[in-house]
Amino acid sequence: MTRRDSPTKLVPGLLLLVVLGVVAQSIPGVNALLVAIVLGAVFTNLTSLPDRFTPGLAVHPLFLETGIVLLGASVSLDEMAASGVVVALLVVATVATGLLTVELLSRRVFDVGAKTGSVLAAGSSICGVSAATAIAGSIEAKSEQLTHAVATILLFDAVTLVAFPAVSHWVTLSPKQFGVWVGLSMFSTGPVAAAGFAHSSLAGQWATVTKLTRNSLLGVVALGYTALYVTDDDDGRLDVAQLWNRFPKFLVGFFVVALVSNLGVLSAGTLTTVAAVGDWLFVFAFVGLGFSIRLSQMRETGLKPVSVVLCYLLLISVLTFGAVSLLL
Amino acid sequence: MMRPWFSVTSRTGPIQACCATAYDCWVDLERGWQATLLGLGIVAFEFVLAHGV
Hints:
The structure holds two protein chains of two kinds. Chain A is mainly alpha-helical. Chain A is built from 16 helices and no strands. The longest helix of chain A has about 35 residues, at about 75-110. Helices cover about 70% and strands about 0% of the residues of chain B. Chain B has helices at about 15-30, 30-50. The longest helix of chain B has 21 residues, at about 30-50. The interface of A and B includes residues 4, 68, 73, 273 and 277 of A.
């Protein structure tokens, strides 16, 4: 929720999210989350919404994060622990491969500049826009370098948000494999969760957990980049307070709910209801995600950064597809 | 600082004052903490509905 927005100002946008969410849920035979995204994207690109809808629409990340908190109730910590080591190793390998690949493509093949390349590498390898912003701060990138990288990442968030669920019908992966694949390949946390849940609830859980594991490497990578770029001026250092500031706090709720659920405190009926509430929150959030897909912004993105990230995405998608097929 | 729409003046009662304070605290929270509180609140609500207080 944006600071200084009064509740009454939130009403029009929230109503729009809810109405489109209900429409998405009521269309039979198609995935409600995909419909929600498409409805949001169509609405924002084909109509000119009055400004009074903006504050309410901006609440959608809160729905997404609350949905992830509630997701904790469906998580089996035993199962996570059993596959955790393999997934963690896959995450480390993917992030390392991603950073090296994007850095090489940026500097040696497409010549987009070192700092733009580093911001792109962080954004595509770790957690999208937030990682790009964090690394840009660490290496003191210029605002236009960050803008190019962010626009590119947002473009691919939009494309992959539709492409991965579409591809899921033609690939033979289990829900767990698909979730981990999505969690390893896509960029920002919201679209990753969206693509996973568009496949199935279990895929959504694994996509989210895998992605959150990837996000946890942000601090290490930021410190590495800071060390790489630091010269005589060491203002870009990250301290513990900065790392905590960037830590996604909804994870605290996710783990508390997961712990409570795994202790057996909640009955099966309560778990079902909590999951249903979470599903509705995801639908509303995905309508909001659809509203963030702006075709006009996509056209403004430069071709070179897009080429770098496209090459990386194709490579990492193929590599991680093979890895999850063999190892999980 | 209280929001103008909910400012505690002589014509507002204690309930409105409480709501205004609660809303201010909520808006000042980081979104991740808002999500955590909302999520835990939903789980607690469902638990109470199922088991009683």
